[in-house]
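Good morning N.,

You mentioned wanting to compare the apo and holo forms, so I went ahead and generated the holo version with flavin mononucleotide. This is what I fed in:
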Amino acid sequence: MGKVLVVFATRTGETERISNLIAEGIRMEGSEATVKNVKEVKSEADLKGYDGYVFGSATYHGDMMQGMKTMLFLAEKAGLENKVAGSFGAFGWSGEAPDRIFGTMENIFHMDMVSGPMRLKNSSLGGGVQMAQDYGKQIASKL
Ligand SMILES: Cc1cc2nc3c(=O)[nH]c(=O)nc-3n(C[C@H](O)[C@H](O)[C@H](O)COP(=O)(O)O)c2cc1C
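and this is what came out, ligand included:
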């Protein structure tokens, strides 16, 4: 049991859909999940007070979206050491963003990472709903 913050960066809404499914999985395990658009995170204070963090961005031009980069600089000062963490994102073919976010959470913030990032081409195809919910469950069970 605990509180998890899920933050997403999206252009066309797919990464937002994934974040809501991850939140469902977290709640299925009996924990609390708060979902925020990265644009709502304006200071370190907005990141404080949670036991777990899941950050996601769609991949554009081989990279995460600018809003997520800006938020990761804020998060550097938010004292996230040893908090449970994971990353996710929608992608088309290469999907670099979730890996980059995961690497920053692990190597810079020194968080307690789940097994790896979660990438989905489309949350409604090929078991995507289940995969995203399972990722949320994985996060919650590590709290
Ligand atoms: C201009 C443009 C560039 C893109 N670049 C990449 C890319 O480098 N790698 C990749 O895997 N997907 C790329 N995509 C695909 C998006 O990641 C994919 O459509 C994703 O579902 C968008 O998620 P969103 O709805 O959360 O914005 C690109 C899409 C567009 C329109």
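Residues 14-28 form the longest helix (15 residues).

Happy to go through it together on a call whenever suits you.

Best,
F.
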